[in-house]
Amino acid sequence: QVQLVESGGGLVQPGGSLRLSCAASGFTFSSYIMRWYRQAPGKERELVATIGSYGSTSYADSVKGRFTISRDNNKNMVYLQMNSLKPDDTAVYYCKRPAGEYWGQGTQVTVSS
């Protein structure tokens, strides 16, 4: 069955960096678009970044220039490199395979001094 497992979240100071990872299994990873979403307390879940099966990328305006999504099709992994983090980036971050609406369990990112 399809499984998505996120890791790499934590507490970081403003201006710091984190790299989130999502380990995928149970499907032919290289064939699918993958996405990162986030949900802050009291807010709706929002799309952060998308990567196509061949590596094309797109980003929410709020993270453009600071976040980078990437994938390793040999390792069935998708990553989100987050730089210049701000308190507004605090949220639970989720990995998603849009086809079939598969979600990971999420990883908490807290940006605070």
- Based on Cα principal axes, name the global outline: globular
The unreliable regions are none
Radius of gyration: 13 Å
Order of helices and strands: EEEEEEEEEEE
Q: Tally of extended strands? A: 11
The major sheet is characterized as:
7 strands, mixed
Q: How much strand?
A: over 45%
- Overall pLDDT metric: 97
Distance between the termini: 40 Å
Alpha plus pi helix count: 0
Helical fraction:
under 10%
Secondary structural class? mainly beta
Describe the structure.
With 113 residues, this protein is mainly β. It contains no helices and 11 strands. The chain has strands at 3-7, 10-12, 18-25, 34-39, 46-51, 57-59, 67-72, 77-82, 91-97, 102-103, 107-111. Strands 2, 4, 5, 6, 9, 10 and 11 form a 7-stranded mixed beta sheet that branches. It is globular, with a radius of gyration of 13 Å. The N and C termini lie far apart (40 Å). The model has no long low-confidence stretch (mean pLDDT 97).
